Amino acid sequence: MCFEGHVLVKNDSKVPHSVTGGQGIFRRQHVDAKMSVKKCDTEMKKKKIYADRNKCKDVNTFILSDYKQVKAICNGQGRYDQTNGTTKSVAKFRIVRCDLKNNGARKPKCQYKGTLLTNRIVVVKCEGKLPVHYCGDEMTFESNNATIGKIPMRSTSVPTNIHF
């Protein structure tokens, strides 16, 4: 679990990737620059992404990027959070989240609905400067290199609609 005692974002996996093979599993299950919302069923099956005992995984997230950019999160392009041991990306990513449509289904009857999410801060667990666990993502209204979505507010500003 990525957030011991904290609920920040939905966690994609119940078994830490570091226990089952680290960055290789992370890369296979979560990084795919060519993924699309229409390919969830195909890719989940092709990449053999299942939960315990051949049960269909409830949700899996694919980062639409090459592995080099994702790996950079653990190599200076991320912000380490000491409270939970995770690292948040500085760059914003597009992701495809695949949600299981038929709850409780078992392989091979897994059916997924894909959703494209943009401007996401990706949260990962790093080990040895490599991402080994996808912890989730956070929405941001900022784009990379711009201030779109930010509302500037000076500390000296006082709202005029306050009544005592």
Q: Can you describe this structure?
A:
The protein is of the alpha+beta class. The protein has one domain: P-30 Protein. The protein has 4 helices and 6 strands. It has helices at residues 17-20, 23-30, 40-46, 67-71, and strands at residues 59-63, 78-81, 86-89, 93-100, 112-127, 130-139. Strands 1, 2, 3, 4, 5 and 6 form a 6-stranded antiparallel sheet that branches. The longest helix has 8 residues, at 23-30. The chain is globular and about 40 Å long. The N and C termini lie far apart (46 Å). Residues 4-20 and 146-164 have low confidence and may be disordered. InterPro entries: RNaseA, RNaseA-like_dom_sf, RNaseA_AS, RNaseA_domain. Belongs to the pancreatic ribonuclease family. Keywords: Disulfide bond, Endonuclease, Hydrolase, Nuclease, Secreted. One of its GO terms (cellular component) is extracellular region. It is found in: Secreted.
Summed up, the helix count is 4
Termini separation: 46 Å
Structural class: alpha+beta
Give me the Rg, rounded: 18 Å
Portion of residues in beta strands equals 25-35%
- CATH homologous superfamily, by name? Ribonuclease A-like domain
The major β-sheet equals: 6 strands, antiparallel
Q: Can you tag this structure with a few keywords?
A:
164 residues, disordered C terminus, 6-stranded antiparallel β-sheet, P-30 Protein, globular, 6 strands, 4 helices, alpha+beta
List the helices and strands and how they pair.
Layout (H helix, E strand, L loop, with lengths): L16 H4 L2 H8 L9 H7 L12 E5 L3 H5 L6 E4 L4 E4 L3 E8 L11 E16 L2 E10 L25
